Amino acid sequence: MPQPPRRAPDSGTTGDLFDGMADASPRDDPGFEPTPAAAQARLAAVRPAAYARTRNHLHGAVTRLSPYLTHGLLSLREVVTHLRRAHGLGLDHKLVQELGWRAWWHHAWRHQGEAIFASLHEGPVPEAAYARELPADVLAASTGVPVIDQSVRALCASGYLHNHARMWLASYLVHVRHVHWRAGADWMHAHLLDGDLASNHLSWQWVAGTGSHKPYLFNAENVARYAPEDWHSFGSVVDTSYEALEAIAYGQRQARPADAPPSRGRHGSRAGGGETLEAVPVTPQRPGAPCPAPDPADFAGREVWLVHPWALDGPPRGLPAGTLVAGLWLDDHHRRWPWSATRWHFVGRRMDAITNAQWRGTAAQWTRALAGAARVSGWQDPHLGPLSPALGLALRPPAFAEPATACRSFSQFWRAVRFAD
Ligand SMILES: Cc1cc2nc3c(=O)[nH]c(=O)nc-3n(C[C@H](O)[C@H](O)[C@H](O)COP(=O)(O)OP(=O)(O)OC[C@H]3O[C@@H](n4cnc5c(N)ncnc54)[C@H](O)[C@@H]3O)c2cc1C
Fold it and tell me: What distance in Å separates the CA atoms of residue 359 and residue 106, rounded to the nearest whole number?
């Protein structure tokens, strides 16, 4: 039974929308440096009031903290503690709630495990009706739908995409082009510097309607409200009513540019200067940096601090002298979830800066190699799978005290959550 579509959120008033947020504007953004100093500078630049007013806009005062959170240069607790102390924010503030979404997706992953990588329930059309490959014109940023081509270009060039652009891109792929959410999610995860399996794959399911009650749909008017002019997509396939988009999503109608009302203005069909983007490859190996497999002889009798891609904050002070700061690359993970060169570069530079040496191996090789170490320490992360508890790594102190039992929805989760003091 078709459900009414979920529509994009309204912006509220505009007026002084961008006041006081110049230092947070992506227009002058220096990009992402994989250093604690850069992470701390972003945290210090957060403007919660401007965030709450403008976060849905592509040039709104979003924090761009996510690559630092995903890779452990900042912990969720550190960010939340800063927002409480420096800005007096409570659980009711929009920014704290958005950080809560990150905690919620991880709660869902913890309780549902591998199940989050398959559709949680059926979406608008049966699974078999969705393509398993991304269309070549999407990969080449040459669909002729400016909002999509701009999004693909930004993602591939910088490894970052505003939340709204992620929603538009995911919605277009799943509901207009009928690509399976999993194909889109794997591709986006590979390119995002903040690629996080829980936030990414469950957000795709939310958009797809396989993890939520309704598909998320958007149209050209919504893009025009939140994005700069070169993203506007009047005259394209998304320039149509929500009813028409819903019919396309449910397979009752073909998507075609003629769905656009004829009176609409057209803003060109090519985004980003006209050239076509080569499909950007993703790889399970760090380009140009071969790593030996972990060998028991390298660790025998040693104190070891493990640095891995989700714990790039570096070793804590006070480790015993002579501790080996060992870089861990997990073969099982990278074979399954390849990364773009941009992401390898971001993580690899930080790894090089803080480790004595690096190794790459499977969970079985790592467990065997570390068995003879005097002591192994480091932080757990779910991206390491069963390896982190197997090695006895420590859980990071949480930002929120969450219910131990599984919640069914974000609102149920958020009602039960308290700050972890
Ligand atoms: C299709 C899709 C895929 C996504 N994939 C990822 C991903 O791989 N990794 C990831 O960290 N986020 C993902 N998100 C969530 C969100 O888009 C990003 O966290 C956010 O855009 C990161 O930019 P920011 O730090 O400037 O966010 P801000 O808006 O400044 O938010 C501050 C922080 O709150 C958290 N946050 C905000 N919104 C969300 C959200 N909806 N879900 C979870 N956490 C949120 C993030 O940690 C973010 O850094 C995805 C969303 C969608 C719709």
Answer: 27
Q: What is the pLDDT of residue 256?
A: 76
Measuring CA to CA, how many Å separate 319 from each of 32, 37, 256, 304, 373?
Answer: 29, 22, 62, 9, 15
pLDDT at 257: 66
The DSSP code sequence of 49-93 is HHHHHHTTSTTS-----HHHHHTTSS-HHHHHHHHHHHH---TTS
- Phi then psi dihedrals of residue 65, to 5 deg: -85, -15
Ligand 1 atom showing the smallest separation from residue 169 Cα: 1
Q: Is the C-beta atom of 203 inside 6 A of ligand 1?
A: yes
Mean residue pLDDT of the chain comes to 91
**Does ligand 1 lie within 6 Å of residue 63's CB atom?**
yes
What is the per-residue pLDDT for 274? 62
Q: Please state whether beta strands 418-419 and 400-401 pair in parallel, antiparallel, or not at all (unpaired).
A: antiparallel
- Is the CB of 64 within 6 Å of ligand 1? yes
Give me the CATH code for the 127-259 domain, please: 1.10.579.10
Tokens of 107: 């709660």
83 C-beta closer than 6 A to ligand 1: no
Hunting for tokens 């394209």 — which residue is that?
A: 236
Ligand 1: does its nearest atom lie under 6 Å from the Cβ of 101? Answer: yes
Residues 365, 367, 370, 371: is their CA dihedral positive or negative?
A: negative
- The pLDDT value given to residue 289: 81
CA–centroid distance, 312 to ligand 1, in Å, is 19
Determine whether 354 is exposed, middle or buried from the number of CB atoms within 10 Å of its CB (0-12, 13-18, 19+): middle
* Residue ranges in the chain whose pLDDT is less than 70: 1-30, 257-274
Looking at residue 241, the DSSP 8-state letter turns out to be -
- Residue 26: per-residue pLDDT: 44
Please report, rounded to a whole number, the percentage of residues in the chain having pLDDT higher than 70: 89
Which of 98, 197, 226 to probe ligand 1 with, by most ligand atoms within 8 A of CB?
98
Q: Where are the domains of the chain?
A: 127-259, 283-390
107 lines ligand 1 (CB under 6 A): no
Which one of 199, 202, 212, 218 would you pick to mutate in the ligand 1 pocket, going by the greatest count of ligand atoms within 8 A of its CB? Answer: 199
pLDDT digits (tens, 9 = 90+) for 75-128: 999 999 999 999 999 999 999 999 999 999 999 999 999 999 999 999 999 999
Task: For residues 109 and 202, give the distance between their C-alpha atoms in angstroms, rounded to a whole number.
Answer: 9
* C-alpha 67 – ligand 1 centre gap (Å): 10
Is the distance from the beta carbon of residue 230 to the nearest atom of ligand 1 less than 6 Å?
Answer: no
